Amino acid sequence: MLPIEEIRQPLRTALKSGLRRFVLEAPTGSGKSTQVPQMLVDEGLVAPNQMVVVLQPRRLAARLLARRVAQERNGKLGDEVGYQVRFDNISGPRTRIKFVTEALLLRQILEQPNLPGIGAILLDEFHERHLHGDLSLALAMRTQQTCRPDLILGVMSATLQAGPLETYLSPCARLRSGGRTHPVEIAYSKDARAVAGLPIWTQAAHHVAKLIAERPEGDVLVFMPGAYEISRTLGALREQGVERFADLRPLHGELPPDQQDAALDPGPRRKVIISTNVAETSLTIEGVRMVVDAGLARVPAYDPQRHLNTLLTQKISRASSDQRAGRAGRTAPGYALRLWGENEHWQRPEVETPEIGRLDLSETLLTLRAADLDPAALPWFEPPTPKALERAAEFLHDLGALDATGHATEDGRSMARFPLEPRFSRLLLAAARNGCVAFATKAAAVAQGRSLLLPLSDERRAEDRETKLERPGEAGLSDLFPEIRALELAEQERFDWGWCQTWGIHQQAALQASKAAVQFLRLAKSQGLPTDDPASDPATALRRSILAAFGDRVGLRMDRATLRCQLVHNRRGDLRKTCVTRKADLIVAAELEERETPHGVDLLLGMTTAIEPAWLAETFPDDVRVTSKMLLHQELRKVVNVRERWFRDLLLESKISGEPDAETAARFLVEEIVEERLQLKNWDGSVTRWIARVNLLAKVCPEHGFPAIGPDELRLIYEQLCHGKTTLKEVRESDPWPILGMFLNDFQNNELDRLAPEHWTLPNGRRSRLRYEDDGTVVLSATVQHLYDSPAKPAIADGRCALLVEILAPNQRPVQVTSDLGRFWESAYHEVKKQLKGRYPRHEWR
Questions:
Q1: CA atoms within 13 Å, Cβ hemisphere of 125
Q2: Is 107 exposed, middle or buried (0-12, 13-18, 19+ CB in 10 A)?
Q3: SS (H, E, C) 201-260
Q4: Over pLDDT 70: what percentage of the chain?
Q5: Are 317 and 350 in contact (CB under 8 A)?
Q6: Which of 290, 420, 574, 690 has its Cα between 20 and 30 A from that of 782?
Q7: What does the alpha-carbon distance between residue 56 and residue 194 come to, in Å, rounded to a whole number?
């Protein structure tokens, strides 16, 4: 009996009592993935006409778990027990237990929110926190809360933080199964001299050979990040002679079903299973006593170069490595070897960051908006950040998938039907309109992966390759064209390693691109897109389609002397020197690479495609606009009318379209002066002081009628200065004094110099210029010696404005500020004299 049986009664009791949600924590090997859905059916917890749907993060796990459960129930796969993954549906009208991948259930909830025929949803391995799993849970909760209160919702995992989930799902039952495990010896191999520094597959094969020789019992499970590393490990194991003593069994999602089954089924000999992380938690593999862990996994991550979610090889967390090691202790004491050092192990993150916190959310947002759902209104377990949603919305708007209000456009709804990154669904839709779908699938395949072309040291061979990859009419138009041609040639040569090596074509990148192109083409056909490519000019058709998919990466060459480009969203970058589009004025870049430099962060533009300006308005009609404005032309040195053509915030073209009339030009010049973009040559310090003096008297001597000169009065002065003028020279050399003189009458002009003089006469006959501040303060600045015998409280404006005296040392530096000289002489002066007399003995000190 499996350990999970201990939760059968508590589960039945909880659901019979009316609870519709539960959290189950049970270790790998306890039987939760296979037994819990059977419990729900066999205990009558779901109606006879309803199905239990089990969400699995991986296609391989969904199929193999369905196979296991069908065997346990002595049935045929696809009858009572079935599965559905992309392009493969083995289920029927009698299916009661169905294993599906997260994305498929997600689409079903969006299309049929009431989930007809489904009585329970189980989210398995929830601790992995896939984005589709989080979204599926939020939508299932919404369905349960609105139209299906009878729906059973269970969240299951080998290791999870049950507390937060219990709070989120409340009211819910919390269940736990301890499972049965045996001790596992953990070892680290980083310092093993025999294989230090060699490729990870060579290291793994070396250690597996030793384990097979030293430990006579048990199978070996080797963890590698992906299919490529698994194939290299198989080769290294054969070189080590391991195949003489054990069967070598690869296990990953790209294998045919019979090979996947062979990895799990028992056989007459020992096995060495080389697997991706699908064997980490989802599947139980009998007979494994030893684990060799490369410590790596293909992890979904955001690639900013392409604005895509992609799979990157990364180090696994400590929690994942513990899960992998535990595989060796399911049936007996085991041994786990980690191909890294113990110090490094403790520097690794404890757990992986949930995908909702590290992936681009544009596909998720488009999925919701196409279903007229607001992401902010969903009951998320962990909601996405507003910034992440804002970034996704901006990107989708750039693609034409969302309108200005954030709702899905018709194109956006069509794009959402593709289980693809929005950029590539947009590419395929545009290609369908332009008649180049098959061509576009290859472009998408090479755009999403690494470059197929490797540097060639032989210059002649490099030139021959360039000729081989160039087709008529494609020269200089797109960096993707040589990549597509390289893919086609590699396919023709059946990816022969020697041929690829000779011509500098990355064999594995070509293989991956070929598989991706097939998948893209299959998806295009499944959506009813024409794939016979009737375009008369395929190169132009594809370039137009690429623009539709990369409208957020449009760039304009800034000059011919450099490779500098101005991009939309106020970014600048440089074309890579290897780009074939160096002669193009307008491009789109499939890659943007950020590089740190001593001057900041620079952008490198790669995988570029030349486009025509007219295509922008055809592809994005709402984002191209023509504006007219006036500006001061620096070369012509006068006001001109300018017609500008913009794509979003990128200025495409600016042309002079004539000159404004004198009155309009004058108004424009006034604004330039007000905004301090135009400086007046004769508007100097004497003018600003005059205005300050007038404003002071307007405040302290109101009976004399001095006008206050504020912003409105200044604008009137500028208007009179600019009247009838259109050139910079005329305005800059205008004399403001005749206009200023009209502000005061004769009496006020005479009183201005008496009441608010420019200078103050000191007792020794010297004159010191008064400083009129904007706040109405008037400052007299003089040395101590020049202030002897001055009035105790110097003032202007008939005594209504006291001067603020700035007392200077002989070196002209301020030592005291006061408005009461009398008090200064009586008190502070003695301290000042004491400090300064010794330094300046030749000066008078009273």
A1: 28
A2: middle
A3: HHHHHHHHHHHHHHCCCCEEEEECCCHHHHHHHHHHHHHCCHHHCEEEEEECCCCCHHHH
A4: 98
A5: yes
A6: 690
A7: 40
Enter the tokens of residue 588: 């789109």
How far is it, in rounded angstroms, from Cα 274 to Cα 223?
A: 6
Scan for tokens 């089990």, then name that residue: 54
Tokens describing residue 119: 């009585």
CA gap 841, 846 in Å, rounded: 12
Task: Please report which residue ranges of 348-448 form alpha helices under DSSP H.
Answer: 362-370, 386-399, 410-416, 422-434, 437-448
SS3 category, 835? helix
Closest CA to 359 of 154, 190, 577, 131: 131
Q: pLDDT at position 75, please?
A: 93
Phi, psi values for residue 344, rounded to 5°: -65, -35
The pLDDT tens digits of the residues spanning 357-381 come to: 889 999 999 999 999 999 999 999 9
For residue 65, report the phi and psi dihedrals to the nearest 5 degrees. -70, -40
pLDDT at 407: 95
**702, HSE (Cβ side, Cα atoms, 13 Å):** 1
Three-state DSSP at 30 gives coil
How many angstroms separate the first and last alpha carbons of the chain?
110
What CA–CA distances, in Å, run from 293 to 288, 320, 442, 443, 550? 13, 10, 35, 36, 40
Tokens of 522: 């299959």
Q: What CA–CA distance (Å, rounded) separates 279 from 747? A: 99
Backbone φ and ψ for 810, nearest 5 degrees, come out as: -55, -25
Cα(283)–Cα(253) distance, rounded to whole angstroms? 13
SS3 142: helix
Model confidence band, residue 180 (pLDDT cutoffs 50, 70, 90): low
Tokens of 633: 């032309």
H/E run at residue 300: strand 296-303
639-692 per-position pLDDT tens digit: 888 899 999 999 999 998 888 888 888 888 888 888 888 888 899 989 999 999
Element (H, E) at 556: strand 554-557
**How far lies 629's CA from each of 510, 633, 642, 658, 733, in Å?**
51, 12, 5, 11, 25
The token duo for 748 is 């006020």
Is 587 a residue whose pLDDT tops 90?
A: yes
Which contiguous run of DSSP H or E holds residue 796? strand 795-796
Separation between Cα atoms, residue 774 and residue 797, nearest integer Å: 17
DSSP string, 698-710: HHH-GGGTPPP--
What residues form DSSP beta bridges with 274? 222, 250
- Residues composing the chain: 846
Q: What's the one-letter identity of residue 749?
A: N
437-448 and 422-434 helices, crossing angle to 10°:
150
Bridge partners (DSSP) listed for residue 259: none
> For the residues 571-600, what does the mean pLDDT come to?
87
State mean pLDDT over 475-500.
Answer: 94
Taking a C-beta distance cutoff of 8 angstroms, is the pair 269, 218 a contact?
Answer: no
Type of residue numbered 536? S
| CA–CA distance, 105 with 83 (Å, rounded to integer) | 12
User: How far is the C-alpha of 664 from the C-alpha of 516, rounded, in Å?
Assistant: 60
d(CA 669, CA 782): 41
Strands (E), 40-150: 51-56, 81-85, 88-90, 97-101, 118-123
- Closest CA relative to residue 352, chosen from 385, 315, 311: 315
Extended strands (E) in 570-705: 571-575, 586-597, 600-610, 624-633, 638-647, 650-656
Cβ(151)–Cβ(120) below 8 Å:
yes
Q: How many CB atoms lie within 10 A of CB 261?
A: 15
User: Helix H segments across 574-624?
Assistant: 613-619
CB 441 within 8 A of CB 517: yes
